[in-house]
Amino acid sequence: MLILQQVANGVLLGAIYVTIALAFTLTIGILNFLNFTIPPIFMLSAMTAWAAAQFGLPFGIFGPMPWTVALAFGIVVAILASLLVERLTFRYLKVRYGDATEHAIPLVSSLGFLLVFQNGIRMAYGTEPHRFITPLGDMSLHLGGIFISLPQVLSLALALIIVFSLSYLLKRTRTGRALRSIAENPDAALLMGVDVARIVPVIFILTGLLCGIAGSIFAVNYGQVYSGMGDEVGNKAIAGMVLGGMGSIWGAIVGGLLIGLVETMSIYLFGGDTVQSVVWGLLLVALVLRPEGLFGHHGIGKGKF
Amino acid sequence: MLLEVKDLDVRYDRLRAVKGVDISVGEQEIVTVLGANGAGKTTLLRAIQGVVRAARGSVRFAGEDVTTADVPSRVRKGLVLVPEGRQIFVSLTVHDNLLMGAYTRRDAGLAAEIDAIYDRFPNLGQRRDMPASVLSGGEQQMLAISRALLSKPKLMMLDEPSLGLSPLYVQRMFDLIGALNRDGLSILLVEQNTSMALATAARATLLELGTAVLAGPSGEVAASERLTSAYLGAR
Ligand SMILES: Nc1ncnc2c1ncn2[C@@H]1O[C@H](COP(=O)(O)OP(=O)(O)OP(=O)(O)O)[C@@H](O)[C@H]1O
Ligand SMILES: [Mg+2]
User: Fold this and answer.
1) Which ligand is nearest to the CA of B13?
2) Angle value at C-alpha A94, between A92 and A97, nearest 5 degrees
3) Is the torsion defined by CA of B175, B180, B181, B183 positive or negative?
4) What are the boundaries of each domain within chain A?
5) H or E segment at B19?
6) Are B228 and B36 contacting, i.e. CB atoms less than 8 angstroms apart?
7) Which residues in chain B touch residue A194, judged by CB atoms under 8 angstroms apart?
8) Is B35 near ligand 1, meaning CB less than 6 Å away?
9) Residue-range domain boundaries for chain B
10) What is the CATH number of domain B3-78+153-232?
């Protein structure tokens, strides 16, 4: 039974990794851009939600918000932050040099943004954890001896909805087809009349949305947020994406879940000290055996933009 | 004239790939551009489509100056390029490739047009839900042309469509170009297959190192000594 409990916890942790891994895989698969601002935007969204619930908006524009409104506000801020990053890293460089991904500059400037977001939040709210209180915290379901908290159930449902909507968007809609065609061949997509510069922000909006939702899931489930929360989650999400295969949606889902499960299982079986070595060791072995990842294919990131 | 290009210059950094070229295509006319490798044929077509910027000169299409217009708006006006090497989306299904061709359209009637394409090319219809990578070279070229057709073009530019095709498919391809033209489509054709291109087109322009050295009715160009020397003595 304890094992099943660990599986439930691992799946929840995995759901957070999956959401962030999806954000990474979208930008890498379509734009060939490893966006380092994803983990800090995840953190920013959760911290914003906490601050909004605690203090409301600055200058007394709005008093402390109910937790649901605060979470929604955090998601909106995440989307805006992501669009800002697009404007100032990707688009600026594309306009200036014609080809954003042939240069390491977007990568480096996104690293710069990481530091700006993180240190800004640190200066404002410190590095210590803050409690994010919701009335759901203590409610839980008994399922044959294991406890599943209400936030866990809601989070999983939310993660599933996200995955299916994203997959629907990419597979079935006009915008999704355009995004997939840009991923394969931006030059040919342009010849079809796709306005590549207008559609790139869609990816950043989706990225911000995914980060915001992951931030909400984290805040509600663990009941606390802190300025360093993006680091661990970001690294594990990248691991999940690479394990699953870069640029693949199903890869991000399976990879993120696997990393979450391996992490909770190794804590349960071998203790907390071993987590890092087990997770990263496993990733290394997996990559030696299958360098392109579980669902990946070769050729990701060649000749983009 | 449907398309009128005047004194067009295109540069890649210091290299002048197209130098002061004039070319025009009338309603329902087929015009061909010939020239050796590196003569600037692809660059000319890409500049007309707006993929590369003109450094000098003007492009008028359907009565409008489109010299500074972006690619999507040129597609919406009815100008489409079937690029060198086909460039179909091999990771998308055949059907999705066709839908991408209609990307700029919002009108009804698309489904019927796609059905007509599947009737014309049963090989595409049978593989509509498979990734386009399963198609043979010839089928891929038919898909590339069909995809371009779905943007409802007035002028279709084709960049070496016969390249790498079997003789059977080369023939089918030229038949298709003829049929589309009889249905009202204007065509600007770049070809290495000089004899078939000259037999199909009404007028021809010969490019040599970015300059149009010869232009006129296909019969006259075919008879010119300049044509053979352009290919033999290039560079
Ligand atoms: N993207 C580019 N950057 C720099 N130079 C280029 C580029 N594309 C083409 N060129 C150069 O411009 C000149 C014309 O090339 P272009 O591809 O237009 O010729 P082409 O007539 O289409 O040749 P081919 O028959 O081989 O297709 C060549 O010297 C080529 O090297
Ligand atoms: Mg060429």
Assistant:
1) 1
2) 100
3) positive
4) 2-289
5) strand B15-25
6) no
7) 72, 100, 103
8) yes
9) 3-78+153-232, 92-152
10) 3.40.50.300
Question: If we measure between CA atoms, which residue out of B143, B112, B145, B141 comes closest to residue B130?
Answer: B143
Backbone angles phi, psi at B190, to 5 degrees: -100, 130
How far apart CA A104 and CA A32 sit, in angstroms, is: 11
Q: State the smallest CA–CA distance between residue A249 and chain B in angstroms.
A: 14
Average model confidence (pLDDT) for chain B? 94
Both tokens assigned to B227: 């044509």
pLDDT tens digits for B86-142?
Answer: 999 999 999 999 999 999 998 889 999 999 999 999 999 999 999 999 999 999 999
Report the nearest-CA residue for atom 14 of ligand 1.
B40
Can you say how many angstroms the Cα of residue A229 is from the centroid of all Cα atoms in its chain?
A: 12
Nearest ligand to residue B44 Cα: 1
Please provide the distance, in angstroms rounded to a whole number, between the alpha carbons at the two ends of chain B: 33
Profile chain A (305 residues) by mean pLDDT over runs of 10 residues: 84 93 92 89 96 82 86 96 87 59 68 85 90 81 79 86 91 94 92 90 95 95 93 93 89 93 92 87 89 71 41
**Nearest CB partner across the interface for A181, out of B80, B89, B104:** B89
Pocket test for ligand 1, best of B16, B21, B43 (most atoms within 8 A of CB): B43
**Pocket of ligand 1, candidates B10, B13, B15: which has the most ligand atoms within 8 Å of its Cβ, to mutate?**
B15
The fold for domain A2-289 equals: ABC transporter involved in vitamin B12 uptake, BtuC (1.10.3470)
Q: Which residue of A has its CA nearest to B74?
A: A193
ipTM, 2 decimals? 0.95
Position A57, amino acid: L
Of the candidates A174, A177, A195, the beta carbon closest to that of B72 is on A195
Rounded-to-integer distance, Cα A27 and Cα A182, Å: 11
Residues 6+ apart with CB under 8 A from B7: B20, B21, B22, B56, B57, B58
